[in-house]
Design goal:
By secondary structure, this protein is mostly helical. The protein is built from ten helices and two strands; from the N terminus they run ααααααββαααα. The chain has one domain. Helix 5 crosses helix 6. The N terminus is likely disordered.
C-alpha cells in the first residue's frame, strides 16, 4: 500500500493501463450482473492467488494433488452461501481431505502434517475473506456495499502508492517492506476517507458519513496489515512479487493482499456495528 520513492520518482505506467482495463469490468460485474457473476470472478481471482501462495509456500515440494484438493476446498468456501454449506463442517471436512491426500501421495514424514496445514491455511487466508464479499453481495443493497468496499480499498492503495512515490522519505517497516513509508500511509488515509465520503454521498446511503470516515480509516489500516503480511510471506520465500500476471502490479496475490484484510473488516463492521446483515 505505502511505497517509498524510486530513485527517479517515476510512476509505473503499466499500473494505470492495467487498472484502466480492469476497473470497468469489475464495476460491471459488481453492479449490473447477478450475484453469482461476482462469485465466479472471486473464484477465478482467488484460485490464481491461492496457486501463487502455494508456490511460495511449498516451492520445490509442490504436489499437484494436494494443491488440487486445496483449490477444491477453496472453491466450496467461496460458493458455500450459494450451496448452503455450513462453514465449520466445510473446513473440518476440507482439513480431513487434505490430511488424507498428504498420506495417500506419500508425503515425506518431515512434511506429512505440515503440508496439509499449509494448504488449509492458504484456504483460510484467501478463501474466508473473499467469502465475506460474496456474503455482502447477497444482500438487497449488496452491490453498492461491495462497490463501496472496492472503491475505498482501491483508493487507499492508489493514493498510498502515489503519495509514497512522490513524497516518501521515512520508512514504515523496512525490515518487512522497505518501500512502505509514513508519507504513503498518510496519503492512503486521505485518499480512502475522501473516496468513502464521496461514495457514501453518491451510492452508499445505507452508511452514514461517520461510517464512511470510520471505514476509510479502518480499511486503510487493515489494508496496510494485509500488504505487510503478504510482504513477509514473499520476503521469507525470497521473491519480489507473487507472480507476473498483472503488469505493473505483479501477481494476483499482490493485487488482492489488501482486500483479504479489508473485506472481513468491512463485513463485520456492517454486521455488528451497523446491523445491516447477520454475522457469518
Amino acid at each position: 500500500m505505502t511505497t517509498s520513492p524510486a530513485p527517479t520518482r517515476q510512476f509505473d505506467l503499466r499500473r494505470l493501463y492495467t487498472a484502466a482495463a480492469l476497473i470497468p469490468t469489475v464495476y460491471l460485474i459488481i453492479v449490473h450482473l447477478a450475484p453469482w457473476a461476482l462469485t465466479l470472478l472471486l473464484i477465478a481471482v482467488g484460485s490464481i492467488a491461492l496457486l501463487e501462495l502455494y508456490r511460495l509456500s511449498f516451492q520445490s515440494r509442490l504436489n499437484n494433488l494436494l494443491v488440487g484438493v486445496g483449490l477444491a476446498v477453496f472453491v466450496l468456501t467461496i460458493a458455500r452461501s450459494h450451496l448452503s454449506l455450513p462453514l465449520p463442517e466445510l473446513l473440518l471436512g476440507g482439513a480431513f481431505a487434505l490430511v488424507m491426500t498428504a498420506l495417500a501421495v506419500g508425503t515425506s514424514s518431515a512434511y506429512r502434517w505440515k503440508d496439509p496445514l499449509l494448504a488449509l491455511l492458504g484456504v483460510l487466508y484467501v478463501g474466508i475473506p473473499l467469502s465475506t464479499v460474496v456474503s455482502a453481495r447477497s444482500l438487497p443493497s449488496g452491490a453498492f456495499l461491495v462497490l463501496f468496499l472496492a472503491v475505498v480499498t482501491w483508493a487507499s492503495d492508489s493514493a498510498a502508492y502515489y503519495a509514497g512515490t512522490l513524497w516518501g522519505k521515512h520508512p514504515l517497516m523496512p525490515s518487512i517492506s522497505p518501500k512502505k513509508t509514513y508519507e504513503g500511509l498518510l496519503g492512503g488515509l486521505m485518499g480512502a476517507i475522501a473516496a468513502a465520503v464521496l461514495a457514501q454521498m453518491w451510492f452508499a446511503s445505507e452508511l452514514s458519513w461517520t461510517d464512511a470516515v470510520a471505514l476509510g480509516i479502518l480499511l486503510t489500516l487493515t489494508g496496510l496489515v494485509g500488504d505487510l503480511f503478504e510482504s513477509a510471506i514473499k520476503r521469507r520465500a525470497g521473491v519480489k512479487d507473487s507472480g507476473g500476471i498483472l503488469p505493473g502490479h505483479g501477481g494476483m496475490l499482490d493485487r488482492i493482499d489488501s482486500l483479504l484484510f479489508t473485506a472481513p473488516t468491512f463485513y463485520y463492521y456492517i454486521a455488528y456495528i451497523r446491523g445491516l446483515l447477520p454475522p457469518l
